[in-house]
């Protein structure tokens, strides 16, 4: 029985010690105003010392005032006696005046010394106050920066967790599609990597329908491939003959997208730049197109066709400029998945909406674009 009580007390004591340690560590980690408190204490001591010096100076001046009053009173009483009078009281008044003047002369030195001391103390108090203010600002800035870093770490951790979850979902979906005998049954098929991105989704308030990937040539689905080029990372290379768009990646690789290109007579080739990008852009047909198709005149000028699933530019548009001039050609999205791999557009380069959204997120403004026939 005694051993049971002893073991119980030992457990309770250990838990109390751990709780105390935890509380101490928490308070130490959250409290960061030690330097501020020390600076404020130093300021208070300096101000107290200056106040003491001021009182001492004031006391000395009061003593001088008393001695001056003694002199005035003694001089006023001396006027009652004649010049040649040898009264003992007269001699006493004269001695009082002499002693008082001697005391004042001695105290003048003390007053000057006290004034110098007061100036030093006041200067020290001012410096301590400025130092306290600077330290407080610095500590507050440090605490704010620490909070920002902590928030950034939390956001980064959340993003990593989300990316890990998506990766696990993609792996699970690929395993599921392989086990059910999908058309993408090869273990190392690169077209499987982004297959889940072609599902239906809501983007910018518009519901994008799912892409029937089983009906497409899987060569035109987004995939990471080996690609040898001398172009810099981030460059867009459009191969109009093969119907591929490559985004150059590090390590001799590229992100490849299937595209639809311009009909015969409307092809465009050359080297240019992506001047800017737009999400769910308006579409304004060029004058040449309106001349060929007058029914598009209502979308000309500043009107334009509103963003939406029926807008020819789709979910995203990248605007191609050459030597600072608008080429009127775009990289843009389309819901017409069957047109990928064909020459069906009016000169522009079209991608599946899900692919142009992905490309938009990877390409920077000003990126180089090379349009060629291989």
Overview of the molecule:
This protein has 374 residues and is of the alpha+beta class. 49% of the residues lie in helices and 18% in strands. The chain has five helices and 13 strands. The strands form three sheets. Strands 3-6-5-4-13-8-9-10-12 form a nine-stranded mixed sheet, covered by helices on one side. The protein has a two-stranded antiparallel ribbon with strand order 1-2. The protein has a two-stranded parallel ribbon with strand order 7-11. α2 (34-78) packs antiparallel against α3. The protein is rod-shaped, with a radius of gyration of 45 Å. It starts with a helix and ends with a strand.
Features:
374 residues, alpha+beta, two-stranded antiparallel ribbon, 13 strands, rod-shaped, disordered N terminus
Question: What is the distance, rounded to the nearest whole angstrom, between the alpha carbons of the first and last residues?
Answer: 92 Å
The beta-strand count equals 13
SSE pattern: HHHEEEEEEEEHEEEEHE
Beta-strand level of the residues, as a percent range? Answer: 15-25%
What structural category arises from helix and sheet content?
Answer: alpha+beta
> Could you give a short account of the major beta sheet?
9 strands, mixed
Principal-axis shape equals rod-shaped
**How large is the radius of gyration?**
45 Å
Order of strands in the sheet with most strands: 3-6-5-4-13-8-9-10-12
Quickly count the helices.
5
Helix content estimate: 40-55%
SSE blueprint and pairings:
Layout lengths: L1 H29 L3 H45 L9 H92 L21 E3 L2 E3 L14 E4 L9 E4 L4 E6 L3 E6 L2 E2 L7 E10 L7 H6 L23 E7 L2 E10 L8 E3 L3 E4 H10 L5 E5 L2
Parallel strand pairs: 4-13, 7-11, 10-12
Antiparallel strand pairs: 1-2, 3-6, 4-5, 5-6, 8-9, 8-13, 9-10
